[in-house]
Amino acid sequence: MTPDRGPEFAQYNDFSKLSDLDYNFAYPGSSWQRGTNENTNRLIREYLPKCTDMTLVSEGYIESAIYK
Questions:
Q1: Distance CA 23, CA 18 (A)
Q2: Do 47 and 67 contact (CB within 8 A), yes or no?
Q3: Model confidence over 18-56: pLDDT tens digits?
Q4: Are 26 and 34 in contact (CB under 8 A)?
Q5: Which contacts qualify for 26-29: CB closer than 8 Å, 24 or more apart?
Q6: CA–CA distance, 2 with 33 (Å, rounded to integer)
């Protein structure tokens, strides 16, 4: 798994032991080391700009964006 360095991964060591997953952190500012993630984010941003309140987005809209 190659996560970013966000606070949600602060306990990665404990989770790694429990899940039997290895973590490889990308270097800061090296988005090319997480290409699939960056490409997925770019595709999502076509439909949902940054800072979109996801609680206001309908499930139908999300499904229509996924299956286009």
A1: 13
A2: no
A3: 888 777 777 777 778 778 878 888 888 888 888 899 899
A4: yes
A5: 26/2
A6: 8
Helix H segments across the chain?
12-19, 35-45, 59-66
Of 36, 38, 65, 39, nearest to 52 by C-alpha is 65
pTM: 0.50
Q: What angle do CA 39, 62, 21 make, to 5 degrees?
A: 50
Q: Tokens 């286009």, residue? A: 68
DSSP tag of 25? P
